[in-house]
Amino acid sequence: MGNRLSKIYTRTGDDGSTGLGDGSRVAKDSLRVGAYGTVDELNSTIGMVLASDGVADDVREALTQVQHDLFDLGGELCIPGMAMVHDADIERLEQVLDAFNDPLPPLKDFILPGGGMAASCCHLARTVCRRAEREVIALGREEEVRPQAQRYLNRLSDLLFVVSRVLARASGHGEVLWNHERRRKPQA
């Protein structure tokens, strides 16, 4: 492990810059800082899911592993040229996704965010994940970003959608379905 902070504030960022993991300094609003900052936000929203009541052990185990992966991904984005997320991590996500999705009934309608606190938090994590993916894509247009970062986030958003369904069904609230018929005018 690198240097440990004995003092939390350094004042080095007071000028609007921050240090990357390789020691270089960039603006705090740079695309790279935005991307790894949103990955950090995503990790925090997954923490909200895990802090919710009624999260089954298999979901807890899967999302805890995801939190570790996201910490690695943040490190990869913070240190240009670093490789910390690999194809095997994406393949593992796909296996977990399939295991959670296989027992679910096929979707016939769109699902609204809801279905209990844990499911709602998971839907929030899914939307933050999509934003992180967009920010990684934007960064990749300007700087070198390994394709595994984007692929991991793409697969993770799918997993979070499926886990939201699992959590909603387990909570007893059930999935909240979009009512596309609500706007139709009644016949006179």
Automatic annotation (TrEMBL):
Keywords: ATP-binding, Cobalamin biosynthesis, Nucleotide-binding, Transferase. SUPFAM superfamilies: Cobalamin adenosyltransferase-like. It is an enzyme of class 2 (transferase). Pathway: Cofactor biosynthesis; adenosylcobalamin biosynthesis; adenosylcobalamin from cob(II)yrinate a,c-diamide: step 2/7. It catalyses: 2 cob(II)alamin + reduced [electron-transfer flavoprotein] + 2 ATP = 2 adenosylcob(III)alamin + 2 triphosphate + oxidized [electron-transfer flavoprotein] + 3 H(+); 2 cob(II)yrinate a,c diamide + reduced [electron-transfer flavoprotein] + 2 ATP = 2 adenosylcob(III)yrinate a,c-diamide + 2 triphosphate + oxidized [electron-transfer flavoprotein] + 3 H(+). Its EC number is 2.5.1.17. It comes from the Bacteria. Residues 1-23 are annotated as: Disordered. One of its GO terms (molecular function) is corrinoid adenosyltransferase activity. It holds the Pfam family Cob_adeno_trans. InterPro entries: CblAdoTrfase-like, CblAdoTrfase-like_sf, PduO-typ. Belongs to the Cob(I)alamin adenosyltransferase family. PANTHER family: CORRINOID ADENOSYLTRANSFERASE (PTHR12213), CORRINOID ADENOSYLTRANSFERASE MMAB (PTHR12213:SF0). Homotrimer. This is Corrinoid adenosyltransferase. It comes from Dyella japonica A8. The lineage of its organism: Bacteria, Pseudomonadati, Pseudomonadota, Gammaproteobacteria, Lysobacterales.
